[in-house]
Amino acid sequence: MYRIERFDKNADCRTLELSPDLFHEALRTPPESLARFHVDNKNGEDFDIVYYDNNDDIEPIDTYPKYQKPPFMARYHIYDENDTETLWIGFFDGVSNMVFEELNEYTIVLTKLVLQHTGIDVWCDDKRILYFMPRHERLHVSGQLPTDLDRESLLYIQKKLGSGIEDGRFRTLSSTYAFHNVFLLQWLLEGRDFSKYKFITVDIDDWGGIGAILSYYVRYRIGFARFGLKFVHEDNGYLGKFREEELKRFFVLDLHDEEAKDDNTLVVPSFMVLSKTKFLKGIKHPVDESIITPEFKAEMDEYYDGVFGDRKVLGVMIRGTDYVSAGLTGDRVMASPRQMAPLIHEWIKEYGFERVFLATEDEDALEYMHHEFGHMLDALAQERLKLSDLRENEVISEYEKEHADGMYEEKLEDTTINYFYALYMLSRCDSFICSGRCNGWDIVMSLNNGRFANCYKFAVGIDKIRSGSPL
Fold first, then answer.
1. In what order do the strands lie in the sheet containing 230-231?
2. Residues 31, 73, 219, 159: is their CA dihedral positive or negative?
3. What is the per-residue pLDDT across 191-238, written as a single tens digit (0 to 9) for each?
4. How confident is the model at residue 410 (pLDDT cuts 50, 70, 90)?
5. Per mean pLDDT, which of 20-34, 69-83, 120-134, 330-344 is the most reliable?
6. Is 242 helix (H, G, I), strand (E, B) or coil?
7. Are 80 and 183 in contact (CB under 8 A)?
8. What's the distance, Cα to Cα, between the start and end of the chain in Å?
9. Which side of the chain, N or C, has fewer Cβ within a 10 Å radius?
Protein backbone atom coordinates (compact mmCIF):
# COMPACT_ATOMS: atom_id res chain seq x y z
CA MET A 1 0.00 0.00 0.00
CA TYR A 2 1.20 3.51 -0.81
CA ARG A 3 0.88 6.16 1.88
CA ILE A 4 0.92 9.88 1.12
CA GLU A 5 3.76 11.80 2.77
CA ARG A 6 5.30 15.27 2.61
CA PHE A 7 7.49 16.08 -0.36
CA ASP A 8 11.09 15.29 0.57
CA LYS A 9 13.38 17.40 -1.61
CA ASN A 10 16.39 15.48 -0.32
CA ALA A 11 15.06 12.12 -1.51
CA ASP A 12 16.55 10.95 -4.79
CA CYS A 13 13.64 9.15 -6.46
CA ARG A 14 11.60 9.02 -9.64
CA THR A 15 8.86 11.62 -10.27
CA LEU A 16 5.35 10.66 -11.41
CA GLU A 17 2.58 12.97 -12.57
CA LEU A 18 -0.64 13.02 -10.55
CA SER A 19 -3.29 11.15 -12.56
CA PRO A 20 -6.10 8.60 -12.00
CA ASP A 21 -3.48 5.95 -12.81
CA LEU A 22 -0.93 7.18 -10.25
CA PHE A 23 -0.80 4.14 -7.96
CA HIS A 24 -0.93 1.65 -10.82
CA GLU A 25 1.95 3.48 -12.47
CA ALA A 26 3.97 3.25 -9.26
CA LEU A 27 3.17 -0.47 -8.87
CA ARG A 28 4.38 -1.29 -12.40
CA THR A 29 7.86 -1.28 -10.90
CA PRO A 30 7.92 -4.12 -8.34
CA PRO A 31 8.00 -2.17 -5.07
CA GLU A 32 10.21 -2.77 -2.10
CA SER A 33 9.47 -1.68 1.44
CA LEU A 34 9.61 2.12 1.75
CA ALA A 35 9.96 2.62 -2.03
CA ARG A 36 9.31 6.33 -2.68
CA PHE A 37 8.10 8.45 -5.59
CA HIS A 38 7.79 12.21 -5.94
CA VAL A 39 4.41 13.28 -7.34
CA ASP A 40 4.13 16.31 -9.63
CA ASN A 41 0.77 17.76 -8.57
CA LYS A 42 -0.95 20.18 -10.94
CA ASN A 43 -3.84 20.54 -8.43
CA GLY A 44 -1.79 21.76 -5.48
CA GLU A 45 1.41 21.09 -3.53
CA ASP A 46 3.72 18.31 -4.67
CA PHE A 47 3.92 15.28 -2.37
CA ASP A 48 5.52 11.85 -2.10
CA ILE A 49 3.98 8.40 -2.09
CA VAL A 50 5.79 5.76 -0.03
CA TYR A 51 5.25 1.99 -0.24
CA TYR A 52 4.59 -0.05 2.91
CA ASP A 53 4.29 -3.83 2.91
CA ASN A 54 0.72 -4.99 3.70
CA ASN A 55 2.14 -7.65 5.99
CA ASP A 56 3.16 -4.84 8.35
CA ASP A 57 -0.45 -3.63 8.71
CA ILE A 58 -1.88 -6.66 10.52
CA GLU A 59 -2.20 -7.95 14.08
CA PRO A 60 1.07 -8.39 16.01
CA ILE A 61 2.91 -11.39 14.59
CA ASP A 62 2.97 -13.13 17.98
CA THR A 63 -0.83 -13.53 17.85
CA TYR A 64 -0.46 -16.06 15.01
CA PRO A 65 0.00 -19.80 15.64
CA LYS A 66 3.65 -20.84 15.52
CA TYR A 67 2.92 -23.36 12.77
CA GLN A 68 1.68 -20.58 10.46
CA LYS A 69 4.36 -18.83 8.42
CA PRO A 70 4.20 -15.34 6.86
CA PRO A 71 3.12 -13.60 4.74
CA PHE A 72 -0.26 -13.25 6.45
CA MET A 73 -1.72 -10.62 4.12
CA ALA A 74 -2.03 -10.38 0.34
CA ARG A 75 0.02 -7.79 -1.53
CA TYR A 76 -2.06 -6.03 -4.15
CA HIS A 77 0.50 -5.05 -6.78
CA ILE A 78 -2.07 -5.66 -9.55
CA TYR A 79 -5.75 -4.78 -9.22
CA ASP A 80 -8.53 -3.19 -11.29
CA GLU A 81 -11.04 -1.00 -9.49
CA ASN A 82 -13.13 -0.81 -12.68
CA ASP A 83 -13.71 -4.58 -12.95
CA THR A 84 -16.89 -4.59 -10.86
CA GLU A 85 -17.62 -8.25 -11.63
CA THR A 86 -14.69 -9.28 -9.44
CA LEU A 87 -15.16 -6.70 -6.67
CA TRP A 88 -17.19 -7.59 -3.59
CA ILE A 89 -19.27 -4.44 -3.17
CA GLY A 90 -21.43 -6.48 -0.78
CA PHE A 91 -18.80 -5.73 1.86
CA PHE A 92 -20.49 -2.33 2.25
CA ASP A 93 -24.00 -3.71 2.82
CA GLY A 94 -25.70 -2.11 5.82
CA VAL A 95 -23.26 0.83 5.90
CA SER A 96 -24.57 4.42 5.82
CA ASN A 97 -21.36 6.29 6.60
CA MET A 98 -17.66 5.55 6.03
CA VAL A 99 -15.04 7.41 8.04
CA PHE A 100 -11.30 7.02 7.52
CA GLU A 101 -8.42 8.36 9.56
CA GLU A 102 -5.65 8.28 6.94
CA LEU A 103 -5.56 9.29 3.29
CA ASN A 104 -3.69 6.58 1.41
CA GLU A 105 -3.89 4.48 -1.76
CA TYR A 106 -6.56 2.15 -0.35
CA THR A 107 -8.85 4.76 1.23
CA ILE A 108 -8.73 6.77 -2.00
CA VAL A 109 -9.71 3.75 -4.11
CA LEU A 110 -12.42 2.68 -1.64
CA THR A 111 -13.86 6.20 -1.56
CA LYS A 112 -14.17 6.24 -5.35
CA LEU A 113 -15.94 2.86 -5.29
CA VAL A 114 -18.31 3.86 -2.50
CA LEU A 115 -19.30 7.12 -4.20
CA GLN A 116 -19.83 5.37 -7.53
CA HIS A 117 -21.58 2.15 -6.48
CA THR A 118 -23.34 2.86 -3.17
CA GLY A 119 -25.29 5.59 -1.40
CA ILE A 120 -22.81 5.80 1.48
CA ASP A 121 -21.53 9.15 2.79
CA VAL A 122 -17.74 9.40 3.20
CA TRP A 123 -16.03 11.52 5.86
CA CYS A 124 -12.39 12.60 5.61
CA ASP A 125 -10.33 15.21 7.47
CA ASP A 126 -7.58 15.47 4.83
CA LYS A 127 -8.31 18.02 2.07
CA ARG A 128 -5.69 16.41 -0.17
CA ILE A 129 -8.35 13.85 -1.14
CA LEU A 130 -9.59 16.52 -3.58
CA TYR A 131 -6.31 16.10 -5.49
CA PHE A 132 -7.57 12.66 -6.48
CA MET A 133 -11.28 13.22 -7.16
CA PRO A 134 -13.77 16.07 -7.69
CA ARG A 135 -16.05 17.36 -4.97
CA HIS A 136 -19.11 15.21 -4.36
CA GLU A 137 -22.26 15.81 -2.32
CA ARG A 138 -21.59 12.64 -0.31
CA LEU A 139 -17.89 13.37 0.25
CA HIS A 140 -17.50 15.43 3.43
CA VAL A 141 -14.07 17.01 3.80
CA SER A 142 -13.47 18.93 7.01
CA GLY A 143 -10.81 19.49 9.62
CA GLN A 144 -12.42 17.14 12.14
CA LEU A 145 -13.98 13.71 11.86
CA PRO A 146 -17.58 13.38 13.14
CA THR A 147 -18.22 11.67 16.46
CA ASP A 148 -22.03 11.50 16.45
CA LEU A 149 -22.67 9.04 13.60
CA ASP A 150 -24.77 5.91 14.16
CA ARG A 151 -22.28 3.20 15.16
CA GLU A 152 -24.48 0.37 13.91
CA SER A 153 -24.28 1.58 10.29
CA LEU A 154 -20.76 3.08 10.42
CA LEU A 155 -17.68 1.68 8.66
CA TYR A 156 -14.69 3.12 10.52
CA ILE A 157 -11.31 2.67 8.82
CA GLN A 158 -8.58 3.38 11.33
CA LYS A 159 -4.98 4.27 10.64
CA LYS A 160 -3.45 1.35 12.47
CA LEU A 161 -4.94 -2.01 13.33
CA GLY A 162 -4.92 -2.82 17.02
CA SER A 163 -5.60 -6.53 17.29
CA GLY A 164 -7.90 -8.56 15.07
CA ILE A 165 -11.01 -7.25 13.34
CA GLU A 166 -11.76 -4.75 16.03
CA ASP A 167 -15.49 -5.24 16.59
CA GLY A 168 -15.98 -8.70 15.12
CA ARG A 169 -18.42 -7.26 12.56
CA PHE A 170 -15.80 -5.86 10.17
CA ARG A 171 -17.05 -2.33 10.86
CA THR A 172 -13.83 -1.12 12.53
CA LEU A 173 -10.66 -2.16 10.74
CA SER A 174 -7.54 -0.95 8.96
CA SER A 175 -7.51 0.26 5.36
CA THR A 176 -5.50 -2.84 4.36
CA TYR A 177 -8.21 -5.16 5.68
CA ALA A 178 -11.02 -3.09 4.16
CA PHE A 179 -9.35 -3.07 0.73
CA HIS A 180 -8.61 -6.80 0.99
CA ASN A 181 -12.27 -7.63 1.64
CA VAL A 182 -13.37 -5.81 -1.52
CA PHE A 183 -10.55 -7.01 -3.81
CA LEU A 184 -10.02 -10.58 -2.52
CA LEU A 185 -11.31 -12.28 -5.67
CA GLN A 186 -8.89 -10.31 -7.84
CA TRP A 187 -6.02 -11.50 -5.66
CA LEU A 188 -7.13 -15.10 -6.16
CA LEU A 189 -7.55 -14.70 -9.92
CA GLU A 190 -4.17 -13.05 -10.53
CA GLY A 191 -5.44 -11.53 -13.77
CA ARG A 192 -7.21 -14.65 -15.08
CA ASP A 193 -10.68 -14.58 -16.63
CA PHE A 194 -13.26 -15.05 -13.86
CA SER A 195 -15.91 -16.38 -16.27
CA LYS A 196 -13.91 -19.61 -16.70
CA TYR A 197 -14.36 -20.64 -13.06
CA LYS A 198 -17.30 -22.48 -11.49
CA PHE A 199 -15.58 -24.08 -8.50
CA ILE A 200 -13.09 -23.15 -5.81
CA THR A 201 -10.96 -25.25 -3.48
CA VAL A 202 -9.03 -24.64 -0.25
CA ASP A 203 -6.80 -27.14 1.48
CA ILE A 204 -8.24 -27.97 4.92
CA ASP A 205 -5.21 -28.47 7.16
CA ASP A 206 -4.83 -31.59 9.28
CA TRP A 207 -3.97 -29.69 12.47
CA GLY A 208 -7.60 -28.94 13.34
CA GLY A 209 -10.05 -31.15 15.18
CA ILE A 210 -13.46 -32.16 13.87
CA GLY A 211 -15.00 -28.91 15.13
CA ALA A 212 -12.60 -26.71 13.14
CA ILE A 213 -12.86 -28.91 10.06
CA LEU A 214 -16.66 -28.87 9.97
CA SER A 215 -16.76 -25.15 10.74
CA TYR A 216 -14.51 -24.22 7.84
CA TYR A 217 -16.15 -26.68 5.47
CA VAL A 218 -19.50 -24.96 6.00
CA ARG A 219 -17.96 -21.46 5.93
CA TYR A 220 -16.35 -22.22 2.58
CA ARG A 221 -19.61 -23.48 1.12
CA ILE A 222 -21.60 -20.44 2.27
CA GLY A 223 -18.88 -17.84 1.73
CA PHE A 224 -17.76 -18.73 -1.78
CA ALA A 225 -21.36 -19.03 -2.93
CA ARG A 226 -21.49 -15.23 -2.61
CA PHE A 227 -19.13 -15.12 -5.60
CA GLY A 228 -21.14 -17.73 -7.52
CA LEU A 229 -18.50 -20.43 -6.86
CA LYS A 230 -19.08 -23.91 -5.43
CA PHE A 231 -16.58 -25.20 -2.89
CA VAL A 232 -15.06 -28.59 -3.67
CA HIS A 233 -12.39 -30.55 -1.84
CA GLU A 234 -9.47 -32.53 -3.20
CA ASP A 235 -10.53 -36.14 -3.74
CA ASN A 236 -7.73 -37.72 -1.68
CA GLY A 237 -9.85 -39.71 0.76
CA TYR A 238 -9.31 -37.34 3.69
CA LEU A 239 -10.90 -34.20 5.10
CA GLY A 240 -8.22 -32.71 7.30
CA LYS A 241 -6.78 -35.60 9.31
CA PHE A 242 -9.96 -37.71 9.15
CA ARG A 243 -10.87 -40.30 6.56
CA GLU A 244 -13.74 -39.09 4.45
CA GLU A 245 -15.54 -42.45 4.36
CA GLU A 246 -15.61 -42.54 8.17
CA LEU A 247 -16.79 -38.94 8.51
CA LYS A 248 -19.74 -39.64 6.23
CA ARG A 249 -21.03 -42.14 8.80
CA PHE A 250 -21.69 -39.20 11.11
CA PHE A 251 -21.99 -36.10 8.93
CA VAL A 252 -23.72 -34.99 5.74
CA LEU A 253 -20.94 -33.77 3.44
CA ASP A 254 -20.91 -32.59 -0.18
CA LEU A 255 -17.21 -32.46 -1.03
CA HIS A 256 -16.88 -33.29 -4.71
CA ASP A 257 -18.42 -32.53 -8.11
CA GLU A 258 -17.83 -34.51 -11.31
CA GLU A 259 -17.76 -31.27 -13.33
CA ALA A 260 -14.88 -29.79 -11.30
CA LYS A 261 -11.65 -29.82 -13.33
CA ASP A 262 -8.28 -28.11 -13.02
CA ASP A 263 -9.22 -25.49 -15.62
CA ASN A 264 -12.51 -24.44 -13.97
CA THR A 265 -11.49 -24.65 -10.30
CA LEU A 266 -9.89 -21.69 -8.56
CA VAL A 267 -7.26 -22.64 -5.98
CA VAL A 268 -6.86 -20.57 -2.80
CA PRO A 269 -3.15 -20.52 -1.86
CA SER A 270 -3.44 -19.35 1.75
CA PHE A 271 -6.02 -19.95 4.45
CA MET A 272 -4.55 -17.19 6.62
CA VAL A 273 -5.41 -14.56 4.02
CA LEU A 274 -9.00 -15.82 3.96
CA SER A 275 -9.20 -15.46 7.74
CA LYS A 276 -9.25 -11.64 7.35
CA THR A 277 -12.46 -11.61 5.31
CA LYS A 278 -16.04 -10.81 6.25
CA PHE A 279 -17.43 -13.18 3.62
CA LEU A 280 -15.84 -16.03 5.59
CA LYS A 281 -15.32 -14.95 9.21
CA GLY A 282 -18.48 -12.85 9.27
CA ILE A 283 -20.57 -16.03 9.07
CA LYS A 284 -21.69 -16.47 12.65
CA HIS A 285 -22.11 -19.98 14.06
CA PRO A 286 -22.13 -21.81 10.70
CA VAL A 287 -22.61 -25.47 11.69
CA ASP A 288 -26.21 -26.45 12.41
CA GLU A 289 -27.94 -29.78 12.92
CA SER A 290 -28.42 -30.32 9.17
CA ILE A 291 -24.79 -31.46 8.93
CA ILE A 292 -25.42 -34.39 11.31
CA THR A 293 -26.82 -37.67 10.00
CA PRO A 294 -30.23 -38.50 11.56
CA GLU A 295 -28.86 -41.71 13.08
CA PHE A 296 -25.94 -39.94 14.76
CA LYS A 297 -28.17 -37.18 16.10
CA ALA A 298 -30.65 -39.67 17.55
CA GLU A 299 -27.80 -41.52 19.25
CA MET A 300 -26.46 -38.31 20.88
CA ASP A 301 -29.95 -37.20 21.98
CA GLU A 302 -30.51 -40.57 23.61
CA TYR A 303 -27.18 -40.28 25.42
CA TYR A 304 -27.89 -36.76 26.73
CA ASP A 305 -31.40 -37.67 27.91
CA GLY A 306 -30.08 -40.78 29.61
CA VAL A 307 -27.38 -38.86 31.51
CA PHE A 308 -29.22 -35.66 32.43
CA GLY A 309 -32.93 -36.22 31.89
CA ASP A 310 -34.82 -33.07 32.90
CA ARG A 311 -32.15 -31.72 35.25
CA LYS A 312 -30.89 -28.17 34.79
CA VAL A 313 -27.38 -28.32 33.29
CA LEU A 314 -24.60 -25.76 32.86
CA GLY A 315 -22.26 -26.58 29.97
CA VAL A 316 -18.60 -25.58 30.36
CA MET A 317 -15.91 -25.82 27.68
CA ILE A 318 -12.22 -25.46 28.63
CA ARG A 319 -9.56 -25.52 25.93
CA GLY A 320 -6.08 -26.24 27.28
CA THR A 321 -3.21 -28.40 26.12
CA ASP A 322 -4.22 -28.30 22.44
CA TYR A 323 -4.05 -24.50 22.42
CA VAL A 324 -0.76 -24.45 24.35
CA SER A 325 0.80 -26.93 21.93
CA ALA A 326 -0.32 -24.80 18.96
CA GLY A 327 1.47 -21.78 20.40
CA LEU A 328 -1.60 -19.53 20.27
CA THR A 329 -1.28 -16.10 21.87
CA GLY A 330 -3.15 -12.79 22.03
CA ASP A 331 -6.92 -13.08 21.91
CA ARG A 332 -6.66 -16.85 21.37
CA VAL A 333 -5.27 -17.42 24.88
CA MET A 334 -7.81 -19.39 26.89
CA ALA A 335 -9.04 -18.59 30.39
CA SER A 336 -7.75 -21.09 32.95
CA PRO A 337 -10.09 -23.22 35.11
CA ARG A 338 -9.07 -21.11 38.11
CA GLN A 339 -10.11 -17.93 36.25
CA MET A 340 -13.41 -19.48 35.18
CA ALA A 341 -14.41 -21.06 38.50
CA PRO A 342 -15.81 -17.90 40.21
CA LEU A 343 -18.28 -17.28 37.38
CA ILE A 344 -19.32 -20.95 37.30
CA HIS A 345 -19.97 -20.88 41.07
CA GLU A 346 -21.93 -17.63 40.66
CA TRP A 347 -24.14 -19.08 37.94
CA ILE A 348 -24.76 -22.30 39.89
CA LYS A 349 -25.98 -20.27 42.85
CA GLU A 350 -27.92 -17.69 40.83
CA TYR A 351 -29.62 -19.99 38.33
CA GLY A 352 -29.90 -23.22 40.30
CA PHE A 353 -27.97 -25.62 38.07
CA GLU A 354 -28.09 -29.21 39.21
CA ARG A 355 -25.22 -30.51 37.08
CA VAL A 356 -22.15 -29.13 35.29
CA PHE A 357 -21.18 -30.80 32.02
CA LEU A 358 -17.50 -30.26 31.21
CA ALA A 359 -15.88 -30.61 27.78
CA THR A 360 -12.08 -30.51 27.83
CA GLU A 361 -9.14 -32.35 26.33
CA ASP A 362 -6.94 -31.21 29.21
CA GLU A 363 -6.36 -33.66 32.08
CA ASP A 364 -5.16 -30.89 34.41
CA ALA A 365 -8.37 -28.93 33.77
CA LEU A 366 -10.48 -32.02 34.45
CA GLU A 367 -8.68 -32.67 37.75
CA TYR A 368 -9.11 -29.07 38.89
CA MET A 369 -12.81 -29.02 38.00
CA HIS A 370 -13.42 -32.33 39.80
CA HIS A 371 -11.78 -30.90 42.89
CA GLU A 372 -13.74 -27.63 42.61
CA PHE A 373 -17.23 -29.00 41.79
CA GLY A 374 -17.12 -32.61 42.98
CA HIS A 375 -20.24 -34.71 42.42
CA MET A 376 -21.91 -31.97 40.32
CA LEU A 377 -19.45 -32.49 37.46
CA ASP A 378 -19.96 -34.82 34.49
CA ALA A 379 -17.55 -35.30 31.56
CA LEU A 380 -17.33 -37.70 28.64
CA ALA A 381 -14.74 -40.43 28.93
CA GLN A 382 -11.90 -39.68 26.51
CA GLU A 383 -8.12 -39.60 26.26
CA ARG A 384 -6.73 -36.37 27.71
CA LEU A 385 -3.28 -34.84 27.95
CA LYS A 386 -1.50 -32.95 30.68
CA LEU A 387 0.55 -29.87 29.98
CA SER A 388 3.59 -31.88 31.06
CA ASP A 389 2.94 -34.25 28.12
CA LEU A 390 3.78 -31.47 25.67
CA ARG A 391 7.13 -30.35 24.38
CA GLU A 392 7.34 -26.57 24.67
CA ASN A 393 6.55 -24.73 21.42
CA GLU A 394 5.79 -27.95 19.56
CA VAL A 395 2.52 -28.33 17.68
CA ILE A 396 2.42 -32.09 18.19
CA SER A 397 2.79 -33.46 21.70
CA GLU A 398 5.19 -36.23 22.69
CA TYR A 399 2.17 -38.45 23.37
CA GLU A 400 0.92 -37.98 19.80
CA LYS A 401 4.38 -38.66 18.37
CA GLU A 402 4.68 -41.93 20.29
CA HIS A 403 1.26 -43.07 19.07
CA ALA A 404 1.41 -41.55 15.58
CA ASP A 405 1.44 -44.81 13.59
CA GLY A 406 -2.14 -45.35 12.53
CA MET A 407 -3.44 -43.28 15.45
CA TYR A 408 -5.91 -41.23 13.47
CA GLU A 409 -7.12 -44.18 11.41
CA GLU A 410 -7.40 -46.72 14.22
CA LYS A 411 -8.96 -44.31 16.73
CA LEU A 412 -10.81 -42.08 14.28
CA GLU A 413 -14.27 -43.11 15.40
CA ASP A 414 -13.53 -42.56 19.11
CA THR A 415 -11.73 -39.26 18.47
CA THR A 416 -14.48 -37.89 16.25
CA ILE A 417 -17.45 -39.15 18.24
CA ASN A 418 -16.12 -38.15 21.66
CA TYR A 419 -15.25 -34.61 20.64
CA PHE A 420 -18.40 -33.97 18.63
CA TYR A 421 -20.48 -35.69 21.31
CA ALA A 422 -19.11 -33.14 23.76
CA LEU A 423 -19.96 -30.20 21.50
CA TYR A 424 -23.46 -31.51 20.86
CA MET A 425 -24.10 -32.16 24.56
CA LEU A 426 -22.94 -28.62 25.36
CA SER A 427 -25.49 -27.33 22.85
CA ARG A 428 -28.24 -29.25 24.69
CA CYS A 429 -27.38 -27.66 28.06
CA ASP A 430 -29.46 -24.83 29.52
CA SER A 431 -26.55 -22.36 29.64
CA PHE A 432 -22.99 -22.31 28.32
CA ILE A 433 -19.62 -20.89 29.44
CA CYS A 434 -16.52 -21.13 27.21
CA SER A 435 -12.87 -20.46 28.05
CA GLY A 436 -12.31 -18.27 24.99
CA ARG A 437 -12.41 -17.75 21.25
CA CYS A 438 -12.44 -21.08 19.39
CA ASN A 439 -14.30 -23.05 16.74
CA GLY A 440 -15.94 -25.08 19.50
CA TRP A 441 -17.72 -21.95 20.74
CA ASP A 442 -19.07 -21.28 17.24
CA ILE A 443 -20.31 -24.84 16.75
CA VAL A 444 -21.98 -25.07 20.16
CA MET A 445 -23.71 -21.71 19.64
CA SER A 446 -24.83 -22.72 16.15
CA LEU A 447 -26.18 -26.12 17.22
CA ASN A 448 -28.00 -24.46 20.12
CA ASN A 449 -29.64 -21.96 17.74
CA GLY A 450 -30.34 -19.32 20.38
CA ARG A 451 -31.93 -21.58 23.02
CA PHE A 452 -29.38 -20.86 25.79
CA ALA A 453 -30.80 -18.95 28.73
CA ASN A 454 -27.32 -17.47 29.30
CA CYS A 455 -23.93 -17.85 27.62
CA TYR A 456 -20.52 -16.33 28.22
CA LYS A 457 -17.22 -16.40 26.34
CA PHE A 458 -14.09 -15.29 28.17
CA ALA A 459 -11.66 -12.93 26.45
CA VAL A 460 -8.22 -13.11 28.01
CA GLY A 461 -4.88 -11.41 27.63
CA ILE A 462 -1.46 -12.90 28.04
CA ASP A 463 -1.60 -12.82 31.85
CA LYS A 464 -5.10 -12.01 33.01
CA ILE A 465 -8.73 -11.69 31.98
CA ARG A 466 -9.40 -8.44 30.14
CA SER A 467 -13.08 -8.73 29.46
CA GLY A 468 -15.94 -11.10 28.87
CA SER A 469 -18.48 -11.36 26.08
CA PRO A 470 -22.03 -12.10 27.32
CA LEU A 471 -23.21 -12.95 23.80
1. 230-231, 199-202, 265-268
2. negative
3. 999 999 999 999 887 667 788 889 889 999 999 999 999 999 998 898
4. very low
5. 120-134
6. strand
7. no
8. 36
9. C
State the helix-helix crossing angle for 210-225 and 412-428, rounded to 10 degrees.
Answer: 70
CB atoms within 10 A of CB 242: 23
Phi, psi of 357 (to 5 degrees): -100, 120
> Does residue 345 surpass a pLDDT of 90?
yes
As a whole number, mean pLDDT of residues 236-243 equals 86
The pLDDT tens digits for 53-92 are 888 877 777 767 666 777 788 899 999 999 999 999 999 9
Kindly provide the residue ranges of all beta strands, DSSP E only, lying in 255-365, ordered along the sequence: 265-268, 313-318, 355-360
Question: In the sheet where 47-51 sits, what is the strand order?
Answer: 2-6, 47-51, 36-40, 15-17
Taking the C-alpha atoms of residue 375 and residue 370, their distance in angstroms, rounded to an integer, is 8
Helices (H), 190-250: 210-225, 244-247
Residue 86 identity (one-letter amino acid): T
Neighbour order of strands in the sheet with 431-434: 377-379, 355-360, 313-318, 431-434, 454-460, 465-469
Q: What is the pLDDT of residue 327?
A: 61
- In angstroms, the CA 349 to CA 341 distance is 12
**How far is 179 from 92, CA to CA, in rounded Å?**
11
Structural contact between residues 412 and 210, judged by C-beta atoms closer than 8 angstroms = no
Chain-centre distance of CA 418, in angstroms? 26
- Condensed to tens digits (0 to 9), the pLDDT of residues 266-296 reads 999 877 788 889 988 888 878 899 999 999 9
Instruction: Say if CB 201 and CB 79 are below 8 A apart.
Output: no
User: How far, in Å, CA of 4 to CA of 50, rounded?
Assistant: 6
